[in-house]
Amino acid sequence: MKNILIISTSLRKGSNSETLAMSFAEGAKTNRNNVETVSLRDKTINFCRGCLSCQKTQKCVINDDANEISNKMLNADIIVFATPIYYYEMSGQMKALLDRANPLYTTDYKFRDVYLLSSAAETEDTAMDRAITGLEGWIACFEKAKLKGVLLAKGVTNIGDIENNEILKKAYEMGTNIS
């Protein structure tokens, strides 16, 4: 049984990336994994100030929701990020959270596997390449972690466009493969 933290970074309730994350979660639960989903929709996450105090204290000096989320990341076996693709890149709120997770760098973090689920209006297979590269840059700072899997729902713009899309089954199956 794994502790899985899913972080939904879309600010739209019922978004396509959030729907993708829910399908992954349902699959992961079939193997009795402990799954927690955190949405950034109602969270306050300020920008990193670059002061590097967190490297000494393992805590950010900014008192907002990023500290609680970073603590959940610290204790998760698996982290799953779900993001809409904006201008061929991860959402700004996801990038802000990754920057604010800097206190984890000097800790004995538990996560080993990281997944990226995304949705995009674009239909090209390469639509999420920059988001993958950005997340891989973050993961590279955590020697024990690796990018385990990625999924892209292409050609989905409006809320609900992902319904009945084959990608939801793939997300579910990806979740079921965690044991």
UniProtKB/TrEMBL annotation:
InterPro entries named in the record: Flavoprotein-like_sf (IPR029039), FMN_Rdtase-like_dom (IPR005025), ISF_SsuE-like (IPR051796)
Pfam short name (any one): FMN_red
Keywords: Flavoprotein, FMN
Ranges of residues in domain NADPH-dependent FMN reductase-like: 3-106
UniProt GO molecular function: oxidoreductase activity
Matching PANTHER family: IRON-SULFUR FLAVOPROTEIN, NAD(P)H-DEPENDENT FMN-CONTAINING OXIDOREDUCTASE YWQN-RELATED
Full protein name: Flavodoxin family protein
Organism: Ructibacterium gallinarum
